[in-house]
Amino acid sequence: LPPDLYRYEIFPGCTYIISVITGRDKNRRFQDDILYTLPECVVNKCSCIHLSPHVNNLSVNEFNPGSINISWEINREGSNETIFNITRILLEYRSKADRVPFNKLATVDTVDDDYFIQREGYKLFTPGELYEIQATFYNTFECKVINYTNFSLAALEVLQDTTLKGFSWEIILLIACSSLTILLFGSYIIRRNRLILKEIICHTFSLRFARTENYADKSPAAYIIIPTAVKREEETNPLYIEKEILDGTVDQFELPRARIKFLKYLKGGEFGQVFLAKVLNIDNKPGYSTTAIKSIREGAPDDEKAAFIMEIDIVKKLGEHPNIVKIFGCCQLQEPYLIIMEYIPCGDLRNYLIDLREKWKQQNKDERSPMFSETNSAAYIFPNVPRSQKKSEALSLPETEYSNLSSDGNPTPTDCYLAKVESSLDNNELQHFALQIARGMEHLESMGIVHRDLAARNILINEFRTLKITDFGMSRMSPYVSGIRDKVPLRWVALEAIENQYYDSRSDVWSFAVVLWEIGTLGAFPYGNVADAKIVTYLQSGERLERPEVCTDELYSLMLRCWSRATQLRPSFQELVHLLDSRKKHIYVDFGQLNPLYMFPPTKE
C-alpha cells in the first residue's frame, strides 16, 4: 500500500472496489477486482450514518434586554449512550436578510447543561433585525448534527419628547421602575424554575422513578427507585469528598458519591439492578464519563446485602483484562452500596447470537442458499440432589424461577436498551469469540476466582466486537464449597456443583463448554427437551448436550472433555486458550456445511 494512504478519502461503512493490476506491458497486463465493505467502526473512527446525535427543539429566548438564552433538547430515548453523549457544540449566527456566511458565536466544550447564555447581545445583534442561529452538535464519535433557528432582539424605544402631554416625570419614572421590577422578578422566577428542573432531572441522587413492566405476572407497572443520598451537601456539590476518603482510611476503590449523576434505570435481575450514570473524574479522565452502576434492590434483605458486599470484595480483586468488564470503583461508606463499572452499550452475546439466527433465516428465505463466505432465561433454581447417584429415581426440584433474557421478558442486569452492534455471520469471528471468552476466564483462573455463572447472557459485546465477561454476583475465591443450597443456573453449572456444592476453575470449564454450545447453536436453550427436574439424572447417566451441526468433530471432542465427570480430565483455561488460538489454523466452526433448510434448536423451552 502507498505510504500516504491516509490521504485518501476512505470512510467506514462504505463499499470500495479494490483493483490489483500486475505487469507493466499493456498487452500482458492482468487485473483482478474485489469488492470490500469496511465495518461501521474501524478502531475509533465510525460511519456517521447510524451514529449521529439526536438533538431537536433549538430555540432562542431574550430573558433580559440584550441577553439571550439558547437552549436545545437531546433525545436520549432508545439511543446508544455514546451517540447522545454530546462532547462539543459550535454556535454560529448571521443576518437572515443578508445571507452572509455564519460568524462564530461560541464553542461550548462543557455540555452538561442544555442551554447557553449570551449576555450583552446588543454588541453583536441589531435590535429588531432577524438573525439565524446555527448549532452544530458533536458526539463521542465526532459525528455531528446541525440545527437552525431564528430570533431577533426586542427594539429599544427612545423617547423623542420628554414633556409628554398628560404625564409627569414622576409617573413615567414610577412606570419605568415598576416595569423593570416586574421584568427582573420574572427573570428570577424563570431562572429559579430552570435550576429546579435541572436539579430534578439531572442532578446526583435525586429521587427518580423508572416505569418497568412486570413480565412475570403481568401485574400493573412497578416503580423502581434510584438510590438516594441522605446529605443535601452531596446533592448540590459534586466536589464533595467524604472525610474517610480524604483521610485515607478507605481503599483506593472508594469513590465520592457526589460525583455520580444517575441518568436512568437500565435493568434488574436475579442478583441486583443496574443504572446508567455519569461519574466525574474517573479512570484518569477529566469531566464526566459514562458508566454502569450496580446496586442491590431497594429494601433488600440482609442476606442479599451480605452477598453484595461479598461481590464488591471479589470485583476489587479482578484486576484489568480486555475481556473482563472494567471496575472503576465502589461506594461502601453508606447504603445503598454501589459498584461503578465500565458501560458496554451493545448488549449481551446471547442476543447477538439470536440476531445471527434471524439473519440466517432471512438469508435462506430470500435466496435459499448459504450466506457464509468461506431468555429464555437462566433457570436459577434450588437443586435438591442426593449425595449418591441414583439413576433410576427422578429428582424432585422446586419450581424454576426465571429472569427472562429475551426482549419480551424480564430483563437481566446485562441486558441493555441501546443500539446493537451489527451482527456478522462469520466462522472466524465466532471462533474468535470463543477464544476471547477463554482468555478472560484464564485471567480469572490465574486470580483464583471462580465465576459460577458463566453463560452467553453474562458476556457483553461492545461496538468493536470485543467480548467482556461480567456479572460477578455469584463469584467466589476458588475453591469454594457452599454451605447452603444456593440458586444455581442449573443448565450451565457443573455436575459436582449441583451434587456437592463444590466449585473451582474446572467447574467454570464445564460452563464454558455450554457457552461454546450456545455459540454453535446461535443461542439455543441447553437441554431444551429435558425438564428441570430431570436434568441431574440426565447428566448422572452420562448424557451430554448433542453436537451442534456447525461444530467440527474436533471442537465437540473438546467440549466433551470439558464435561468430563472427573474434574481432573477437564482442560484448564490456559490449555483452552492454546487450543482455540486461531493462529493454530484449526477449524472449529463451519457454517458452510449446513443445509440451507437447517433449523437451529429452539431458543426457549
UniProtKB/TrEMBL annotation:
<dbReference type="GO" id="GO:0007169">
    <property type="term" value="P:cell surface receptor protein tyrosine kinase signaling pathway"/>
</dbReference>
<keyword id="KW-0547">Nucleotide-binding</keyword>
<dbReference type="InterPro" id="IPR001245">
    <property type="entry name" value="Ser-Thr/Tyr_kinase_cat_dom"/>
</dbReference>
<dbReference type="InterPro" id="IPR000719">
    <property type="entry name" value="Prot_kinase_dom"/>
</dbReference>
<dbReference type="GO" id="GO:0050793">
    <property type="term" value="P:regulation of developmental process"/>
</dbReference>
<keyword id="KW-0829">Tyrosine-protein kinase</keyword>
<dbReference type="InterPro" id="IPR020635">
    <property type="entry name" value="Tyr_kinase_cat_dom"/>
</dbReference>
<dbReference type="InterPro" id="IPR050122">
    <property type="entry name" value="RTK"/>
</dbReference>
<dbReference type="GO" id="GO:0048468">
    <property type="term" value="P:cell development"/>
</dbReference>
<keyword id="KW-0418">Kinase</keyword>
<dbReference type="GO" id="GO:0030182">
    <property type="term" value="P:neuron differentiation"/>
</dbReference>
<keyword id="KW-0808">Transferase</keyword>
<keyword id="KW-0472">Membrane</keyword>
<feature type="domain" description="Protein kinase">
    <location>
        <begin position="260"/>
        <end position="589"/>
    </location>
</feature>
<dbReference type="InterPro" id="IPR008266">
    <property type="entry name" value="Tyr_kinase_AS"/>
</dbReference>
<dbReference type="GO" id="GO:0043235">
    <property type="term" value="C:receptor complex"/>
</dbReference>
<dbReference type="GO" id="GO:0004714">
    <property type="term" value="F:transmembrane receptor protein tyrosine kinase activity"/>
</dbReference>
<dbReference type="GO" id="GO:0005524">
    <property type="term" value="F:ATP binding"/>
</dbReference>
<dbReference type="GO" id="GO:0051130">
    <property type="term" value="P:positive regulation of cellular component organization"/>
</dbReference>
<keyword id="KW-0067">ATP-binding</keyword>
<dbReference type="InterPro" id="IPR011009">
    <property type="entry name" value="Kinase-like_dom_sf"/>
</dbReference>
<protein>
    <recommendedName>
        <fullName>Protein kinase domain-containing protein</fullName>
    </recommendedName>
</protein>
<dbReference type="GO" id="GO:0005886">
    <property type="term" value="C:plasma membrane"/>
</dbReference>
<dbReference type="GO" id="GO:0012505">
    <property type="term" value="C:endomembrane system"/>
</dbReference>
<dbReference type="Pfam" id="PF07714">
    <property type="entry name" value="PK_Tyr_Ser-Thr"/>
</dbReference>
